Automatic annotation (TrEMBL):
<dbReference type="InterPro" id="IPR053161">
    <property type="entry name" value="Ulvan_degrading_GH"/>
</dbReference>
<dbReference type="InterPro" id="IPR008979">
    <property type="entry name" value="Galactose-bd-like_sf"/>
</dbReference>
<dbReference type="Pfam" id="PF17132">
    <property type="entry name" value="Glyco_hydro_106"/>
</dbReference>
<protein>
    <recommendedName>
        <fullName>Alpha-L-rhamnosidase-like protein</fullName>
    </recommendedName>
</protein>
Length: 794
């Protein structure tokens, strides 16, 4: 395990493996070799660490259908180029999601159990078995009085219902194809979602899809192969279920199948069997196959089929999705499994719905949501995503249907390297040592098909919030996890429902070892252990234990300045600090984060400062000549469709007595103000999972600052200030501020995207809808929106 000094030394410039990555959307596929190389070079220049290729629906004429030799050659080219640039190269083992396609026939497609119910009289009935839909398979029939049933004999293609008393009802169970096809499929990848409980279905997908992709990319060049979130809705059946249930549960399912409609314990046993089949016949199959090629298998293991939290353990790399550090997002499902099963790296799909629509996301939005993921246990960001777009495409080019479009078409891209550099440092930091999570939350078994959602239902929202707001952290644990978790290491566990027999025995061992069991959420706060750092509202903390000490990550997730008073001095590295501070007070501006290292030294707090407005005169240049301008200056008032950059200039008059000397260490800061908080719900069209930072910044949306042609820094997040000390000189100083906005203004005027969506829908069917594009220009403010001040600080 690393030491505090080793982590402190490397934090400024950490190794490259923790750099943020991007999901790279390949539309169509319609790909140009030269554009592949250009985009990979752009990613490397921005400080990204790699790509995850995802093949999705067409946005234009298809040049390389999915699975074709032409596409596989392009995959190989991209892998080789990425390797030459030092970029990690991952590939999704299929198109769209979930796995499936035209190679999946009815014998390998996802199925569900369908019930027909009919009230009948007392006579005997012979009912022909009819295949209502292609692929239907009769399972069993039962007759009864509504409380008890008996299986009905079947022969010669008919159900033979004997005569009996009244009233009666017949229940007929049929295995039906779910009818779900691959979502957002590329051309040539259309077809049914596969049966995740069938090893034969997994083998078919490997043979037709995964093997060719891996051979094309070359296994030695792959960072991992990937499976996206499980979204095989209503898939609760597989042909071998009766045999599998009997061998795994120790009793027969068939005579009691009808009880699935009402019996909680039977439903739970049934779902448990499906979970095990998913693990054995899907996760393990793909992991073993990938391991045979020397490639890790990465998966988002939650959703439907019923993946347990511990199902992750059969994969190599665990990934989550979703932000919300005081709750239980899917990222917590993944990070809990990673901690319990000894994986040091846990990734998350980030920015999936960030500040919709595409191109609305600002660097501040990306930073704020990334911090939420860090607080949920993530230490590898995989951005969603980078849309491939032709170099000669009209308008803005191609975008994915959901936010965000995170590529070099964004006007703010000149600050991307600094943004990704800050996130890289924190990602790396959060891989060091081991996480300290003194609280466990038990996830009870469930009869529901989506076990993650079932857990969210039974665990009150107050439980994770109480733990996190107390400055502590937690892991989820389930029945598989407790088998590897030493009861003596559990200080406190929350059990939200009645204990099951296996759980009860383990909890007895926890009590015997001195641990505390909390079953009433109302008493949780008073039973929590003391946190190492007491945090104010909206500030989250992650605690990592190193070989000889501790390190803490703290992040302000709100719109107010927050102050942490520590009980010992700590060295503080903030989001974009070039040098650390030391002391016992940490000030976090909105959406700011810091790494804290215990130390024995302190620095005095800054003395009182003075601020003088930069009165001007100011000039602005949009690339067509400089002209006078009054501040604040909002571009949309005169150029509503403009996306790009503008340069603001003025002269600063600095007397010699304001310039810092080596002895007095006076700093001069150019400060743009705090920005304006935005009321939650202002953009009412945004869904709850669409992240946005609730601040209108004083610079819309990012800026680079030069003084006397010396680059002083870039700003996009609070505190909106930059240190200009080293560039100052007595007398007249030339100040140049280059402001970059988003591409949202251009998107609002880009008719070609709407026409493109209509054209490809007419040709290929409806595979997507452009999300919220009609709101592209709403609540947008670009430009220099405040008069900056020069702050003199001792």
């Amino acid at each position: 395990m690393v030491t505090v000094d080793e982590v402190r030394r490397q934090f400024r410039n950490p190794p490259p493996e923790a750099r943020p990555m991007m999901r790279w959307w390949w539309f169509g596929p319609s790909i140009e070799p030269a554009e592949l190389d250009r985009e990979l070079h752009a990613m490397a220049a921005a400080g990204l660490g790699g790509v995850e290729v995802a093949f999705v629906y067409p946005m234009g004429p298809v040049t390389a259908p999915f699975g074709s030799p032409a596409l596989l050659e392009l995959v190989g080219q991209a892998a080789r180029t990425a390797h030459s640039l030092g970029l990690r190269f991952d590939v999704t083992l299929g198109s769209g999601w979930s796995y499936g396609g035209g190679h999946i026939g009815p014998e390998h497609a996802a199925r569900r159990l369908h019930w027909d119910r009919r009230e009948i009289g007392g006579g005997a009935y012979d009912v022909r078995i009819v295949q209502a839909w292609p692929g239907d398979e009769f399972v069993a029939a039962y007759v009864g009085d509504g409380t008890s049933y008996a299986e009905v004999p079947v022969s010669d293609g008919a159900i033979h219902v004997p005569a009996g008393g009244q009233p009666r009802e017949v229940l007929i169970a049929t295995s039906r194809l779910t009818g779900q096809n691959v979502k957002r499929a590329a051309a040539g990848a259309e077809g049914p979602a596969l049966d995740h409980y069938s090893a034969a279905a997994a083998a078919a997908h490997i043979r037709h899809v995964a093997d060719p992709l891996v051979r094309a990319a070359t296994p030695e060049l792959l960072g991992s192969v990937f499976c996206d979130s499980l979204e095989v809705y209503d898939a609760d059946w597989t042909p071998a279920i009766f045999e599998e249930f009997a061998s795994r549960r120790g009793y027969e399912l068939r005579p009691r199948l009808y009880e699935l409609r009402s019996d909680t314990r039977l439903r739970t046993d049934f779902r448990r069997t499906l979970s095990e089949l998913y693990e054995d016949n899907f996760v393990k199959v793909f992991q073993r196959w990938a391991a045979g090629h020397g490639v890790p298998f990465r998966i988002q293991s939650y959703g439907e089929p019923p993946a347990t939290m511990s199902s992750y353990r059969f994969a190599d790399l665990f990934e989550g999705e979703g932000w919300g550090w005081t709750g239980i997002p899917e990222t917590r499902w993944a990070s809990s499994a990673a901690n319990i099963y000894g994986r040091s790296v846990v990734s998350a799909e980030v920015w999936t719905w960030v500040h919709s629509p595409s191109f609305r996301a600002t660097p501040l939005d990306l930073q704020g949501e990334a911090h939420e993921h860090f607080l949920s246990g993530v230490n590898q960001l995989i951005g969603h995503g980078w849309p491939y777009s032709p170099s000669d495409g009209p308008g803005l080019g191609w975008i994915f249907y959901a936010a965000g479009a995170l590529d070099d078409r964004n006007p703010w891209w000149p600050v991307a390297a600094e943004l990704f550099g800050a996130l890289h440092r924190f990602s790396w930091l959060l891989r060091q040592g081991t996480p300290v999570r003194p609280v466990k939350i038990y996830v009870p078994p469930s009869g529901e098909l989506n076990l993650y959602r079932a857990a969210r239902k039974v665990i009150p929202e107050s439980v994770p919030r109480t733990i996190r707001e107390a400055g502590l952290d937690f892991d989820l644990v389930d029945d598989d996890a407790i088998a590897v978790l030493d009861p003596a290491e559990v200080r406190l566990i929350v059990v939200p429902e009645d204990e099951w027999p296996t759980t009860a025995r383990w909890l007895d061992a926890v009590r015997a070892a001195g641990g505390t069991i909390v079953s009433d959420p109302a008493t949780l706060a008073e039973t929590l252990p003391r946190a190492p750092i007491k945090v104010p509202p909206e500030v989250g903390v992650v605690h990592r234990r190193l070989a000889d000490g501790e390190v803490y990550f703290v992040a302000n997730t709100g719109t107010s300045v927050r102050t942490i008073t520590l009980d010992r001095p700590m060295e503080q590295w903030s989001t974009r600090a070039a040098e650390p501070l030391t002391g016992q007070v940490v000030t976090l501006h909105p959406y700011e984060a810091a790494a804290l290292f215990p130390t024995t030294t302190t620095q005095p707090l800054p003395a009182a400062s003075t601020a003088v407005p930069v009165a001007g005169p100011w000039f602005v240049d949009f690339g067509n000549g400089s002209r006078p301008v009054d501040l604040p200056h909002r571009w949309e008032d005169e150029l509503p469709a403009y996306s790009g950059s503008a340069t603001y200039t003025t002269n600063l008059h600095l007397p010699s007595n304001t310039i810092s000397s080596h002895e007095d260490r006076t700093r001069l800061l150019l400060d743009f103000g705090p920005g304006e908080p935005v009321a939650p719900g202002t953009e009412s069209y945004l869904p709850p999972n669409s992240y946005r930072a609730l601040i209108t910044p004083p610079i819309g949306v990012a800026a680079e600052i030069w003084l006397n042609d010396i680059h002083c820094g870039a700003i996009w997040a609070p505190p909106f200030r930059v240190d200009i000390t080293a560039a100052t000189r007595p007398g007249v100083n030339t100040l140049r501020i280059v402001v970059h906005n988003t591409a949202a203004n251009a998107l609002s005027a880009d008719r070609h995207l709407i026409d493109t969506a209509a054209d490809v829908t007419a040709q290929f069917g409806r595979r997507f809808d452009l999300q919220h594009i009609e709101h592209a220009a709403g609540y947008v403010s670009s430009g220099l929106l405040a008069v900056p001040t020069v702050v003199r600080q001792a």
